[in-house]
Every structure is written in structure tokens, then in C-alpha cells.
Amino acid sequence: MSSSSSKLLPIFSLLFIISYITLHSTTVEAQIHDIGFDWASSSSSAMSSAMMKVYYISYGALSANRVPCPPRSGRSYYTHNCFAAHGPANPYTRGCSCITRCRR
């Protein structure tokens, strides 16, 4: 019985290796086909267009993090156009009281 089992062990191990390689090669091919690459295409332009994508950042996205008013100008961050806004930046006035003694 040991001689027949010793003959079957290399056969089963070879079948296991072949099935493992076959399973993983089809998985890789499926993943590559999912991203749109075709193995049959031999032209370099098809390969470069499938693998290279160029992304741009718009000027609107770049200016989204910019604070519209100069720092320490007194204008609110939410002022639509702080250079066209007229009047004092902080028109806070207070009346005379016992604590302030009418001083500023």
C-alpha cells in the first residue's frame, strides 16, 4: 500500500500546482480585463492610453481654500467681495456707562 501511495503523492502534488497556477492566472486576467486592458492589442498607443490617465485640478478648486479678505482687515470671511465693501469693517459703538466712564 505504501508503494501505491508514494506514486500518487507526486501526481496529486502536480495536479495541485497546476490548478493553483490556473486559478490565479485567470484571476489576474479577469482583473486586467476589468480595468480595460486587452492582451491581444499589440500597439503601444493602446497600452499607453489604457495605463496613463491625466488628471487636472481646476482653478475653482485651487481657489476654494483661499481666504477672500486680507488677514486682519476686519472683514468677515463670508463677505462676498471684501474689496468692494464700503464702510468701516467693524462698526461697533457703545454708549457711555459707569464702567467705561465714556472712554474708549
Describe the structure.
With 104 residues, the chain is mostly helical. The protein has a domain at 2-65. The protein is built from three helices and no strands. It has helices at 2-34, 44-51, 59-62. It is elongated. Residues 1-30 form the signal peptide. GO terms for molecular function: hormone activity.
Q: Roughly what is the average pLDDT, rounded to an integer?
A: 66
Q: What percent strand?
A: under 5%
* Secondary structure tally, helices: 3
Helix/strand structural class = mainly alpha
Radius of gyration computed on alpha carbons: 37 Å
Distance N to C terminus: 108 Å
Indicate the overall shape: elongated
Q: Tell me the total number of β-strands.
A: 0
How would you characterize the largest beta sheet? none
The residue fraction in helices comes out at: 40-55%
Question: What is the H-and-E element order?
Answer: HHH
pLDDT < 50 stretches:
none
Subcellular location: Secreted
Pfam families: RALF
Keywords: Disulfide bond, Hormone, Secreted, Signal
Main location: secreted
